[in-house]
């Protein structure tokens, strides 16, 4: 009876060590993932809150049914904006556009050119940081 007691205690102790080892490993993994997600959220929030542009004007060129509209923009925020990953919507429809430079650095100037038909249009610039800017354009 003494030997079976010792074996039972050894089995219980070893199984509890294995159990707590698995629990601790899962806890460390979950904590690491949570910290990584929090850092990503903080970066996205910072980029959104510090993104600002000013549309300083626009030019319309062309004859016929299609016109080239060029928006002049200045980055007044403290985050560099990637125009390659930006989107331009005209009256809620995604359109193809060209940009002067890929990156719009803080206090830097650039422009975005797209084609549209004549008439009043609502133009929206949407950046990868989540920042968006509206402008009414009369062609």
Q: Could you explain the architecture of this structure?
A:
By secondary structure, this protein is α+β, with helices and mostly antiparallel strands. The chain folds into two domains: 1-49; 53-138, Immunoglobulins (Immunoglobulin-like). The protein has one helix spanning 2-49; strands at 53-61, 67-75, 81-82, 87-90, 93-95, 97-99, 103-104, 109-116, 120-126, 132-138. Strands 1-2-8-6 form a four-stranded antiparallel sheet, with no helix packed on it. A four-stranded antiparallel sheet has the order 5-4-9-10, with no helix packed on it. The longest helix has 48 residues, at 2-49. It is rod-shaped, with a radius of gyration of 29 Å.
Chain-wise SSE layout:
Layout: H1 2-49, E1 53-61, E2 67-75, E3 81-82, E4 87-90, E5 93-95, E6 97-99, E7 103-104, E8 109-116, E9 120-126, E10 132-138
| Class from secondary-structure proportions | alpha+beta
* Shape category: rod-shaped
Radius of gyration: 29 Å
- Average per-residue pLDDT, rounded, comes to 93
Oligomer: single chain
Helix tally?
1
- Name given to the CATH architecture of the largest domain: Sandwich
Portion in strands: 35-45%
Secondary structure tally: strands: 10
Kindly, what is the distance between the CA atoms of the first and last residues, rounded to a whole number of angstroms? 97 Å
Identify the CATH homologous superfamily of the largest domain: Immunoglobulins
Spans where pLDDT lies below 50 across 5 or more residues: none
Question: What's the CATH topology name of the largest domain?
Answer: Immunoglobulin-like
Helix content: 25-40%
Number of domains: 2
């Amino acid at each position: 009876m003494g030997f079976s007691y010792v074996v039972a205690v050894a089995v219980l102790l070893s199984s509890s060590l294995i159990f707590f080892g698995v629990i601790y490993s899962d806890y460390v993994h979950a904590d690491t993932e949570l910290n990584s997600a929090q850092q990503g959220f903080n970066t996205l929030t910072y980029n959104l809150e510090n993104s600002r542009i000013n549309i300083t004007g626009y030019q319309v060129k062309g004859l016929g049914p299609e016109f080239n509209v060029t928006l002049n923009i200045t980055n007044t925020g403290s985050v560099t904006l990637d125009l390659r990953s930006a989107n331009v919507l005209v009256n809620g429809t995604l359109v193809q556009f060209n940009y002067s430079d890929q990156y719009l650095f803080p206090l830097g100037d650039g422009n975005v050119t797209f084609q549209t038909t004549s008439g009043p249009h609502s133009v929206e610039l949407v950046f990868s940081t989540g920042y968006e800017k509206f402008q009414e354009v009369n062609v």
